[in-house]
Amino acid sequence: MLKHLNITALIMLLISLCSCEKDKDPVATGDGMVNMVISVKTIDSQLSALTRANETYFEDPTSRFERIHTLRYIIVRPDGKVEHNYIIDSESETDYVNYVSFKVQGGEKKQIYLIANEASVTGYDFTKFVAGSSFDAAGVEAITLQTQPGKPLFDNSAEGNQSYLPMAEHFEIEVKMPSPGTDGPTYQYETLFITRTTVKFSFSAVVSPVSTSDITLKKIVFNQIGDCQYLFPRNTVYDPAKYPADASDRMITAYEVPQGAVTADVPFEINWEFPPMNGQGKTGSPALYFPETMFDGNYTATIVVNVDGDDFTYTAQLPNLPSLPRNTHVKIDMVLTGHDVTCIVDVAQYIGVILKPQFGFEVLHPNQQP
Q: Which residues face 19 on adjacent strands?
């Protein structure tokens, strides 16, 4: 009879995202105006994150609800006045939003706010920031996504009741002044990135070597999952740094969650049955999405397994999982054997969504000319 298990947990990440093309404004010529052309794209999922085995673990979105459906651009001038508030509402989900042109005043540092899939952000109306009105930067940057402790932010498991995952980023972009004596139009090209807000979990399990026992993987409980997060990345540190703009992949190395965030256990009812002498593995990826979370101390997961009618509970230490930043896909790979419980954790590097698109955070290419 199998009484002890060996559980190997691999923590990985998820990336992806978005696409379309549109002219927002007529071409700007003279009067110090600049045609700022913004592309929002997701980065290639086959990027440079490495694990113990020196393998790449990034992946594309697994459903259309993990892609960009709507994308709002809010451009704010140095005096706090809104210069543009524009939304693209795509008929289908996209992988990138390319070459959207805005006629803006040159010689200014602009604040650019990007919000994707805003219908999933309840209780806030971004349309109120009309051109020429004052922008409530503090209020927008303080928007939170809230759920009940132990519950997902978004539960997309029921067909017909799914939500698009919200994404957001904020950039400061210096718009150049047209050169003196320039009669023709001046263009400035920017490629930005946008970040999915949530954390997702997936599981796989196999009995190896095969056993003569009836085995059921009943439940996995993740400890210390938060109940709220900011919509926009808050005091987030990227590696490489967010600025200057370039095409480098970036990890989130530090971030902030709301002070009132409460952590709780999150149970996943698995109930996978492994009959005697069955070596076939099982995989599952619940369409449940949780807030980004900061941990207090070492992180653990609890695994409940039934062997020949008796329940056994194991605690898996995950010392290499110091936090759960947004846009993280946690994958737990379990091997059930006749040995003590051990847990090996690898954390693949975190990549995000470029507004050249991506799922997470990503890159900028400012001032590129065609």
A: 96
Please state, in angstroms and rounded to a whole number, the distance separating the CA atoms of residues 290 and 282.
Answer: 23
Burial 229-256 (b: 16+ CB within 10 A, else e): bbbbbbebebeeebeebeeebbbbeebe
Query: Given the DSSP bridges, would you call strands 187-196 and 33-41 parallel, antiparallel or unpaired?
Result: parallel
The CB density around residue 134, as the number of other CB atoms within 10 Å, is 11
- The identity of residue 88, as a single letter, is I
The residue ranking higher by pLDDT, 74 or 161, is 74
d(CA 180, CA 159): 58
Nearest Cα to Cα of residue 15 among 342, 326, 297? 326
347's CB contacts (< 8 A; 6+ apart) are 11, 12, 51, 320, 321
Q: How do residues 112-145 score in pLDDT, each as one tens digit?
A: 999 999 999 999 999 999 999 999 999 999 999 9
User: Strand, coil or helix: what is 2?
Assistant: coil
AA identity, residue 205:
A
Give the C-alpha separation, 194 to 138, whole Å. Answer: 19
